[in-house]
Every structure is written in C-alpha cells, then in structure tokens.
Write a structure and sequence with these properties.
By secondary structure, this protein is α+β, with helices and mostly antiparallel strands. It is built from eight helices and 15 strands. The longest helix is centred in the C-terminal third of the chain and has 20 residues.
C-alpha cells in the first residue's frame, strides 16, 4: 500500500505528488506545517491544529482567502482514501510561487499538501520511558510558529539519535530549557506539574494544552514557569508530549535516572480514556 497525498485539491499516490520548483517553501522555507494522528480513523484535535496553522499563516501574511474552508475537508478526503488502519497526517502550507527575491509577494496562491502515512508505534517508549540529552541551541525568533524552517530541530534530533537518546532538549542562551526538538517538556517538582510558559520562545503544543486540561480534571496542580538544567536534573518525574508520541516518560537525563512516577502514569491513563472516548463517540 502506498501513502496518499493531497495537493491543492487533488488526491494522488505520494510517489506522484508534485509542487513547483518555484514554490517559496522549497526556495526559502516560506511555510508552516502541522502533524496529527487518527484514532479509529478520526483525526484527533483537528480543529485545534487547523486553528494554529491558520493563525500562523495570518501572522506570516499568507493570502487567507483560499485557506479557511478547504483544509478540514481535505484531511478527511486523505483519511477516507487511505487503506492504512491508522494514520500519521502531515499538513504543509507554503506561500506558493511568486515574488521578487526575498520580498513577500502582495498576492500569491498558497500550496496545500497533506500526506497520510502509516502511524509509527510509540507504545514501548510510553511504557518504558526514554533517555534524553540537553543541547545548547534555539529555534530562532519564530519558535512560536511551526514553520518548515526545521534545520535546528533536525540537527538536534539527529545528534540525540547518535547518542542513542530519544530526544534532545534545547537549552537557550539564557540557560532555560523550554522544549525538545519535536516535543514539549513537563516535569514534576514538589508534587506540582511544571511546564515552561508560552513566552514566544517555544511552540504552543496542541498536546501540551490538552495535558494541562487533563491535569486540572484529575486534580493535579500545575504551574507554568521557566525550567533550567538544575530544575530538570532534580525533577521527581519528567515527560514529553506531542501529537504522535502522546505522553512519554523521561527515565534518564544526561545519565541521571528519573523515576516513572504516579503523576505521569495518572496523566497517561486519563489521556487514554480521552482518546478512547473520542474514538468511540466522535463523528
């Protein structure tokens, strides 16, 4: 079975999908993306992902006329056409062709592509936990946007893999660790769930937001505050989140072992109940 791609209103096998070489996403990284997954072939938190995508597009001055009403139907068309049981979905939005050099064109028609691929399995990491490393680095002034300028993240994740770690946590020049290369970070400190605040230097993860809502529902106190290396290495528990991995416990940081504690497990259990209810009752 070959993955299905959506390109500007048309469905095609992924191997035959094409965008012009003049596309500004290809030339300049002028674009945004979202990743999400299905449960029971239903896209989870799709509205939240599309909202973030469109907010980013508005900030980057994309032509919004053609975008607002087509993305959600396009996602469902990819799902209904695909033969895979569950899907990893990648929505990519680029500015399209046009403009003179680096100047943003006054008018351009954005390119919308969606890829539906087999869903990776993270069940082992969710149950056993993962090792992470800390790297000096930052994603730049647009860290709060999910842009396709992803080289710092790519290099950080590759370096983590070289050291047989699951993720690289990025330590900014100010000494604070706000996120991983592809994940948001949570720690448990003095029996309180802690995650870095949305200060413009990290992505407002969709799963991050859901986890905070779930914590509130099951009576877990949470706080948004900056986390430094000392906070991280002395944490009672720690875990990572994103739409594909869900909640993955961190069991080792820079060689220091971290226990998989009850708060992480309670949030994992509540998360599973949430997606079970979604898969069963969502249209």
């Amino acid at each position: 079975m070959e993955p299905i791609a959506y390109v500007n209103g048309k469905l095609t096998p992924l191997s035959k999908a094409r965008v012009p070489l003049t596309d500004r996403g290809f030339l300049y990284g002028d674009g945004l993306f979202e990743t999400l997954r299905t449960y029971n072939r239903k896209p989870f938190l799709l509205n939240e992902h599309v909202k973030r995508l469109l907010e980013g597009a508005s900030y980057l001055r994309f032509d919004m006329v053609t975008l607002k009403d087509c993305i959600i139907p396009a996602v469902y068309s990819v799902i209904s056409t695909s033969e895979f049981e569950e899907l990893y979905l990648r929505i990519t939005l680029t500015r399209g062709s046009g403009g003179e050099g680096l100047f943003i064109p006054e008018k351009s028609r954005p390119n919308i592509t969606i890829i539906g691929k087999p869903l990776p399995d993270f069940s082992r990491q969710q149950s056993q936990g993962v090792k992470v490393i800390i790297l000096k680095g930052r994603r730049g002034e647009l860290a709060f946007l999910k842009t396709i300028n992803f080289l710092p993240n790519l290099l950080a994740r590759t370096y983590a893999r070289d050291l047989r770690a699951f993720e690289a946590l990025l330590e900014n020049n100010d000494g604070f660790i706000r996120e991983g290369s592809v994940s948001n970070l949570f720690i448990i400190e003095r029996n309180t769930l802690v995650t870095p605040p949305l200060d413009g230097q990290l992505l407002a993860g969709i799963t991050r937001g859901l986890v905070m809502k779930l914590a509130d529902k099951i009576g877990i106190r949470y706080q948004e505050k900056l986390i430094d290396r000392e906070n991280l290495l002395s944490a009672e528990e720690a875990f990572l989140t994103n739409s594909l991995i869900e909640i993955v416990p961190v069991t080792a940081i820079e060689g220091r072992k971290i226990p998989m504690g009850g708060m992480t497990r309670a949030l994992q259990a509540k998360y599973r109940l949430t997606i079970k209810d979604f898969a069963k009752h969502s249209p």
